[in-house]
Amino acid sequence: MNAHAQDDVSKIIERSVDNFKKDWAAESRFDCSESDKGKNSTKTYQDIMLYGSQYQRLIAVNDKPLDAHQQAEEEQKFQATVSRRQAEKDSERHERIAKYEAQRKHATELILELSKAFSFTMAGTDKLGDHEVYVLNAEPRDGYEPLSMGTRALTGMRGKLWIDRSSFQWVKVAVEVFRPVSIGGFIARVEPGTRMELEQQQVSSDIWLPSHLTVRSRSKLIFVFSRQTDEEQIFFDYHPAKNAEPPAGRSQSRAPASEPRLRSASIAARESGKPVGKFE
Fold first, then answer.
1. Could you tell me if 119 and 157 are in contact, meaning their C-beta atoms sit under 8 angstroms apart?
2. How many domains does the chain have?
3. Is the sign of the CA dihedral 89, 91, 94, 97 positive or negative?
4. Please, are residues 134 and 122 in contact by the beta-carbon 8 Å criterion?
5. 50 near 100, Cβ under 8 Å?
6. How distant, in Å, are the alpha carbons of 37, 74, 78, 79, 100 from that of 88?
7. Is 264 left (phi over 0), alpha (psi -120 to 50) or beta?
8. Which of 4, 74, 77, 110 lies 20 to 30 A from 146 at CA?
9. What backbone phi and psi angles, to 5 degrees, belong to 150?
10. Is 277 contained in some domain?
11. In-domain check, residue 56
């Protein structure tokens, strides 16, 4: 690739990363619905920004809406959480929001490091859905120093980005492990077969947020015990959040715009070995 072409690729990446950060700084302004497909069941939730952190309200199991009794139980849980958050002391509220923001920051760490961890080359242009896109290949960048154990996995990954040619938004990103990478000293190793795909959708005139996330994890503990997990999440029905702010007269701690938060905590949970939790 000649110097001019590589300069164009660098500008495309730079503009798209700026957009990604802007989008996720705006994430807390939106509620949506989320369908989590696990090994044995599918659960659908309403993701509600409630006084500074997310609350997930169960609305369907295996694509069947809850019955009247189950709906009443979920409504009771929701109202109890509303009351509890309205009555919080300042210290309790700050602790809850800080914990939520830390989880979101951890979940986006891997995504945000892509532009630093990879060298990109132009593979061409294509059409993905309704979008005319640039297609960029990504290979590990020589000399990249991971920020954490989680981002160390990027040193053994390669990927591809599909970037909208008019808005410079990420339409899709896919990364996969092609060589084993130790992420916990002699404790854990990420294996080939690990793969993540993130697709995004336009939710307002200038904001894009996730529509589809799949994570396939293949790892070994102490180089002997194999672990495999597969998860899929679908996000839909985005709309402006109604209860995103703290109760009147109270200030909310916010993460800086440069530290966006991913709505799904799957990546963070995968790195920690903990199940994806529902925020209360």
1. no
2. 1
3. negative
4. yes
5. no
6. 34, 21, 15, 14, 16
7. beta
8. 4
9. -65, -45
10. no
11. yes
Regions of the chain short of the pLDDT cut 50: 251-262, 264-280
Per-residue b/e over 135-166, b at no fewer than 16 CB within 10 Å? ebbbebeeebebeebbbbbbbbbbbbbbbbee
**DSSP string of 161-222?**
EEEETTT--EEEEEEEE-S-EESSTTSEEE-TT-EEEEEEEE-SSS-EEEEEEEEEEEEEET
pLDDT at 188: 75
Residue 130 lies in a domain: yes
Q: Tell me: the pLDDT tens digits for 226-241?
A: 677 889 999 999 999 9
| Tokens linked to 90 | 């300042």
Contact status, residue 275 vs residue 269, Cβ threshold 8 Å: yes
Residue 258's pLDDT is 36
Specify the residue for token string 């849980």: 77
pLDDT of 158 reads: 94
**pTM, entire model:** 0.81
Do 122 and 138 touch, CB atoms closer than 8 A?
A: no
In a domain, 231, yes or no: yes
Give the separation between CA 109 and CA 211, rounded to whole angstroms.
19
Structural domain for 17, as ranges = 3-272
- Predicted confidence at residue 105, as pLDDT, reads 81
Per-residue pLDDT tens over the stretch 144-159: 998 887 788 889 999 9
**CB contact set of 135 (below 8 Å; sequence gap of 6+):** 122, 123, 124, 125, 126, 160, 161, 162
Contacts of 203 (CB under 8 A, 6+ apart): 30, 209, 238
